[in-house]
UniProtKB/TrEMBL annotation:
<feature type="transmembrane region" description="Helical">
    <location>
        <begin position="40"/>
        <end position="72"/>
    </location>
</feature>
<protein>
    <recommendedName>
        <fullName>TIGR00374 family protein</fullName>
    </recommendedName>
</protein>
<feature type="transmembrane region" description="Helical">
    <location>
        <begin position="210"/>
        <end position="232"/>
    </location>
</feature>
<dbReference type="Pfam" id="PF03706">
    <property type="entry name" value="LPG_synthase_TM"/>
</dbReference>
<keyword id="KW-0472">Membrane</keyword>
<feature type="transmembrane region" description="Helical">
    <location>
        <begin position="123"/>
        <end position="140"/>
    </location>
</feature>
<feature type="transmembrane region" description="Helical">
    <location>
        <begin position="84"/>
        <end position="103"/>
    </location>
</feature>
<dbReference type="InterPro" id="IPR022791">
    <property type="entry name" value="L-PG_synthase/AglD"/>
</dbReference>
<keyword id="KW-1003">Cell membrane</keyword>
<feature type="transmembrane region" description="Helical">
    <location>
        <begin position="271"/>
        <end position="292"/>
    </location>
</feature>
<keyword id="KW-1133">Transmembrane helix</keyword>
<keyword id="KW-0812">Transmembrane</keyword>
<feature type="transmembrane region" description="Helical">
    <location>
        <begin position="152"/>
        <end position="170"/>
    </location>
</feature>
Amino acid sequence: MKVWTWVALIVGFALAVFVVMHIGVAAVFGAVVGVGWLGFIAILLAAMPIIALLALAWRSLLGPVVPFWVLFVSRQLRDSATDLLPFTQIGGWVIGARAGILAGIPPIRAYSSSVVDLTCETMAQIAFTIIGLLIGFTKLQASAEMAGYVDALILGTALLVPGVIAFVVLQRKGTKLAAKMAAHFLPKAVAHTEQFTAEIEALYQQPKKLALSSTFHLLAWLATAVWVWVIFRLCGADISLMDAIAIECILSALRSAAVFVPAAVGIQEAGYAALAPVFGVGPEIGLAVSLLKRARDVVLGIPVLLIWQAVEGKRAFGGGNGTEAA
């Protein structure tokens, strides 16, 4: 991992600790513990539809090449790697795609569809952020602390649109970028750059698949907001579903802006603590929601990653070298 990534991670942890200390350890952990074991189990279960929708988004691009459960597990593995391992999102994408490869997805298709899936996810996030800004605009403008950031949020969302367009154009027309992608995703198969580019181009020529994948991604974003609303309610917060959607929309934008910070450590915690009071909830509840989300990532993610490591280890000692062939 690069030095700057370690620096970002350390700064993020320091920010998270500062926020907890500033709000009050007793108040924050009191809200967390108040959820109870049954409440935490409910949090674990309530997140499952999100992963299912994300798997459906990927399947919309791939087609029924493998059973749905393979995509479900691969997508959970991708998210767990992104949330828990000390690197940014690109490592999670590679691991998730590789899991699909081991289950029978052709390597070029797995990696190319992962790239296009990212585009669909980003397009859906733009729509999701717009929804959140429309819902929360009045309260954000009325907040002395957040009013100054509203214009920046709107501008940032607007800039995502040409950013996505440029990303798509570069994927389809930029042979240098395609070569770099192939070199990163397929280090032992750079010779397949043309096939990698052709697979991406073929996907972009199927608008129905792109629309369906983007729709599932938007539903997944909305399901994440519903999940966050459930956590708020379990923490004792009297918050509406619409307000929870607004909070999660803005948090997703903050996480995207802080993509260089692994798992948005510190950014997520500070964001929830700052946004919760805007919508009538104490900052300690907002921070508790963030910590409970982290707890879910750890409780579910560690077993998933350990199983993955065992599978990779078995392949290595069993003579499989994991080389991606076309």
